[in-house]
Amino acid sequence: MKLSIIGSGYVGLVTGACFAEVGHQVICVDNDPKKIQMLLAGDIPIYEPGLEELVTRNVASKRLLFTSSIEEGVHHGEIIFIAVPTPPQLDGSVDLSYIEVVAREIATVLKEYRVIVDKSTVPVKTGEKVAETIRRYNKMNTHFDIVSNPEFLREGCAVADLMKPDRIVIGSNSDRALALMKKVYEPFMAPILVTDINSAELIKHAANSFLALKISYINAVASICEASGADVEKVADGIGSDKRIGRNFLNAGLGYGGSCFPKDIAAFIAISRQLGVPFTLLEEVQRINASSLERFLNKIREALWVLREKKIAVWGLTFKPDTDDIRCSVAMQLVAQLLKEGAQVTVYDPKGMDKARELGTISGVSFASSPLEAACQAEALIIATEWSEFANIDLLALKKTMHTPLLFDGRNLLHPDVVRGAGFVYVSVGRS
Ligand code: UDX
After folding, report:
1. CA-to-CA separations, 261 to 215, 255, 285, in angstroms, rounded
2. Which of 41, 114, 169, 173 is 20 to 30 A away from residue 240, measured at CA?
3. Is 110 helix (H, G, I), strand (E, B) or coil?
4. Residue 284: in which H helix or E strand, if any?
């Protein structure tokens, strides 16, 4: 099928590449000409395992094209996917201006029937607004249908998530659009859930909020474990082996971050308030998340007493492993706080250091080229992101290079007995 994706960011680019991989003819549109030039030259603006090979292969076979012309995109695809950013505003509600601009631009060049699909995470009822906008700005009264098709991919395994999705949600009120959408997804052989447009939109916010709730739940349980001498990992295994609960997303630690969870939970709270049914449970989820970092910082303060002039090493800057994304990363917040309190911080991250340098919010920090170099002469080491490289570290070499063998594991990556056996003082989350 001929498909167009408007917005070649994280979701748009990975979706476009995966659609091309299963045989569709895809054109990815972006209004940033520099990004399009980069993509045309074979450079991928983000790090995502498997993406580069996928893009290179499909560009070579001419199934994946790039353009900065929205008109070309609207002309090319029988289905047009909108995958532009929906950033948060100061009050937590969603800034829909990028979606609105794209809707207007589509309207001005729409000449034949098209299915216009919202892939970005948007508040419930956005589909209705997009339809109204296109109707208002399209002078030719062209027939079109609106579909909501939220994306559930996780960074770090986005290609795998897209190629083998748990489910595909299609929100539509048109049989014609639904038939075309089913054809798009046929090669993926995944269960398809058909709903109305509003339900599909709501599913995305409700799913991410539920996952965040699970994380805050286990972090609250971790505090109780610390107060009572229990072990949160064992508790998580015990409750997670109940199939109704499941072990995933029950890893206690510094809390959730990233470009989706903080924004989506804030948005769902704002949406619920606007609808007159405040979802106050989610406010508690946010509060527990913020306090997870603060509680961990208190353990560091308690052990080191004064942080000023202390040499502290931090492993991990990205919001989770296998990505170079540092947006809303708890690790970055932790480093910023240590710097604020006067510590001398040296960091190492396998993929996130370039973006951290560019961002500049932790400008007082020193960047090391390996985990051991970061730990050299450190009075304490903090694991802030659970990269597998850190799990396999040579503990004896680490102890030798540090000034004091004091290890704070913010992601419960290491085994307490092993680390203590190697001569470290070891502090983690929800475990004594
Ligand atoms: C998330 C959703 O999982 C995905 O479906 C949606 O499309 C986008 O948002 P992503 O932001 O890539 O994906 O990250 P995810 O793997 O869900 O992790 C989010 C955060 O939660 C990370 O900071 C991670 O460290 C944290 N987390 C996750 C925990 O603290 N504990 C856990 O048990 C799981």
Report:
1. 11, 11, 11
2. 169
3. coil
4. helix 280-304
pLDDT recorded at residue 343: 97
pTM over 0.85: yes
- Our CA angle for 333, 336, 341, nearest 5°, is 125
Collapsing DSSP to helix, strand or coil, 382 comes out as: strand
Q: Any residues with CB less than 8 A from the CB of 132 and at least 6 apart, and which?
A: none
Q: Whose CA is nearest to atom 25 of ligand 1?
A: 320
Neighbours of 309 (CB within 10 A): 9
Residues with CB under 6 A from ligand 1: 151-155, 208, 211, 215, 249-251, 253, 255-258, 260-261, 319-320
Q: Which of 320, 330, 334, 388 to mutate to test the pocket of ligand 1 (most atoms within 8 A of CB)?
A: 320
Catalytic residue ranges: 260
Question: What number of other Cβ atoms are within 10 A of residue 134's Cβ?
Answer: 22
Give the chain's residues under pLDDT 70.
Answer: none
Q: How far is the CA of 68 from the centre of ligand 1 (A)?
A: 31
Please give the Cα distance from 406 to 392 (Å, whole number): 18
Inter-CA distances, 340 with 256, 314, 333, 344, 349, Å: 22, 15, 10, 10, 20
Q: Output the pLDDT for position 83.
A: 97
Q: What is the pLDDT of residues 75-130, one digit of tens each?
A: 999 999 999 999 999 999 999 999 999 999 999 999 999 999 999 999 999 999 99
Question: For residue 212, which atom of ligand 1 is closest to its CA?
Answer: 21
User: Which CATH number does the domain 211-427 belong to among 3.40.47.10, 3.40.50.720, 3.50.50.60, 1.10.10.10?
Assistant: 3.40.50.720
